[in-house]
Amino acid sequence: MSNIAFVQNRLGRTDGVSLEVDKWRRVLEERMGHRVRYVSGNDDVPGNYVIPEIYAHHPTTWSILRNGTVAYNEDEVGNEDAFEAMLYAHADTIEQQLMRCIEGEHLDVLIPNNLCSVGYQPAAAIALHRVMRRTGIPSIIHSHDFYYEDSGEVNATCHSVASIYDRYHPPKLPNVRHVFINRIAQKELQRRKNIHGVVVPNVFDFAQEPWRQDAYNSDLRAAFAINDDDLVFLQATRILDRKGIESAIDVIAAIDQVASRRQALDGVRTASGGVFRSASSRIVLLCAGIVETIGISGDYWASLQAKAQELGVDLRHVGERVKHSRGSNDAGEKVWSLWDTYVHADFVTYPSQWEGWGNQFIEAVFARLPVLVFEYPVWVSDLGPVGFDVVSLGREVTGHDQRNLVTLAPSVIDRAADGVVTLLTDPARRQCAVDNNATLAEEHFSLPALEGHIRSLFDSLGLS
Question: Count of alpha carbons within 13 Å of 295, Cβ hemisphere only?
């Protein structure tokens, strides 16, 4: 048995990395018999070993993130020499914390997730490199995203950060194995840095009980003033620029504001057992993820709200009361799990411009829900070829509006709106689509498949 630590700026949340780490943990503990710890910066999840300095919102980390990866502000951090000194001093602190963790927890294996690839926290990447080199501890670098990808989330603002990316993102050490979640990343890192690794696609537990309405989640719609007769379109992702949520707003507006489409939905039974009435029911776009402040824009959510108001789209955010697990928040209010939101959804929107994989898509497939998808690059390379049946937004962006929100061709929006209406009004067509998708996903992206990948990685590191 090995003592294994997953390391990430935050764990135990509803973001894609946290959810995927949960699946790896299940395989390692339940199927392989290892002991697992979460090492993270967030202190809101019981059982995590907390290193505050690796949390994005730690004051020093946040200053480095904003100045080093978004926009450099010399008035805040001084010249580049001063900024570099602050960054490396922060790396020293994180290194010391990591060493205490390894020694105190008697760790045998490290599995950093994104800290050595995405570029948000250059100090943490330096610290992890030092620790892995000094100790020789076997490590699996699990890279979901990279600093050079087209997500637009990070941009080295100075030479110091750019050089750190070149050297440490990710580390190339003999005791390290590299895991990528898609073929694009695998090929690109080999081309850029001659670093080889394996693709381990994100997976899902298809053997679990289906999500259903129960005594706990039956009041979710009512809690947010959504009627049983309303249609709910679920956006389960985090809310940040690259998620393309503006395209979902456009499609819903094209349904709700065109009389023929809205009328066609009359009589459709909703997920909560109501019946949509064209004269009175609403179409709600329900955003269940957190509003992300990391990235190139801090006003994305405000821009979405303004767009939705202009187009008459009922846009709701419930991310403060939707968490990793059921419970209550600091105010004593009831909290639902992310899975509870799928139970009340009629359609899932997944209009991301960039994703490292597609966790929320696979979740929607498990929930037997139809999905609206923008064909982002990894969809084209890894997911689309599997043969999933979705309503497509194509793969071409026509431009950006005055708020810097993505725009798609009107013909694409209209075609997608018609496709959504067809799936909602034709039960046989919808059932065929969701059943086909579930069969394909279970075949390709299951926990047993993940176990095989992990065992191969452990074998290559000389671990049992």
Answer: 18
- Strand 391-392 to strand 399-400: parallel, antiparallel, or no bridges (unpaired)? unpaired
Q: HSE (CB half, 13 Å, CA atoms) of 18?
A: 20
CA dist 204 and 448 (Å) reads: 10
Same domain, residue pair 242 and 192 = no
pLDDT at 243: 95
Q: What CATH number corresponds to the domain at position 411?
A: 3.40.50.2000
Same domain, 177 and 235: no
Structurally, the chain folds into a number of domains equal to 2
Q: How far apart are CA 182 and CA 355, in angstroms?
A: 10
What is the domain range of residue 415? 220-443
Answer yes or no: do 298 and 163 share one domain: no
CA distance 459 to 174: 14
Question: Does any domain span residue 18?
Answer: yes
pLDDT digits over 269-281, tens only?
999 999 999 999 9
Residue 370 lies in a domain: yes
- The dihedral formed by the CA atoms of 243, 248, 249 and 250, expressed in degrees to the nearest 10: 120
Query: Does residue 210 lie within any of the structural domains?
Result: no
51 and 173 part of one domain: yes
Mean pLDDT of the chain: 95
In this prediction, residue 152 carries a pLDDT of 63
User: Over 60: is that where the pLDDT of 295 sits?
Assistant: no
Whether 91 and 110 share a structural domain: yes
Q: Is 161 found in the same domain as 245?
A: no
User: What is the spatial distance between Cα 369 and Cα 286, in angstroms, rounded to a whole number?
Assistant: 15
Contact at 8 Å (CB) between 144 and 112? no
| Cα separation, 88 vs 64, whole angstroms | 11
Residue 109 near residue 140 (C-beta atoms within 8 A)? yes
Same domain, 192 and 71: yes
Record the pTM.
Answer: 0.78
Q: In whole angstroms, give the CA distance from residue 185 to residue 169.
A: 13
Q: Are 236 and 342 in contact (CB under 8 A)?
A: yes
Same domain, 167 and 229: no
Distances (CA, A) of 370 to 6, 103, 342, 379: 33, 48, 11, 16
The answer to whether residue 237 sits within a structural domain is yes
Using the Cα atoms of residue 383, residue 385, residue 387 and residue 390 in order, give the sign of their dihedral.
Answer: positive
The tens digit of pLDDT for each residue in 214-239 reads: 999 999 999 999 999 999 999 999 99
Neighbours of 321 (CB within 10 A): 17
Distance CA 106, CA 1 (A): 12
